[in-house]
Write a structure and sequence with these properties.
single chain, about 140 residues, alpha+beta, two-stranded antiparallel ribbon, 4 strands, elongated
């Protein structure tokens, strides 16, 4: 019978296991950072669109943390609540973004998301690099 011995495999396995131990913190950092970037860019796009009567829609855009039944974490960025006239900020945001009969939407939300994408990629890359450095992998 043949026999094989390998030295160092336990250290490699241990290093790989430690890589995945703290990924919850990394995930939270990327989700929080990405949500903040999206919120900032959407607010800028709304302001630039010129649809600023009272500013209530702008100040109603909030970030909400969510965890699904399966344990998947996410962030929801949307207008919350109602304005001083009782109109849903979500409805106002929808109409300003997509439009309605007799009113062409500005697509401010879509523009904000598009502007946020390269910033989010850069931020996520920095967070992952920092994580790898903390684990001693780079």
């Amino acid at each position: 019978m043949s026999r094989m011995e390998v030295d160092g495999i336990d250290a490699a396995v241990s290093a790989l296991e430690s890589l995945y131990k703290d990924t919850d913190k990394l995930q939270e950092a990327i989700l929080d950072g990405g949500a903040a970037i999206i919120k900032d860019q959407v607010e800028k796009a709304l302001f630039q669109s010129g649809h600023m009567d009272s500013g209530e829609l702008l100040t109603s855009i909030k970030i909400k943390k969510k965890t699904s039944k399966d344990g998947e974490k996410s962030r929801i960025i949307r207008p919350m609540g109602r304005d001083s006239k009782g109109v849903s900020n979500g409805y106002k945001g929808f109409v300003i973004n997509y439009g309605k009969s007799g009113f062409t939407g500005s697509r401010f939300w879509d523009k904000g998301n598009a502007l946020a994408e390269p910033e989010i990629k850069k931020m996520a890359e920095q967070e992952i690099t920092l994580y790898y450095k903390q684990k001693g992998l780079i």
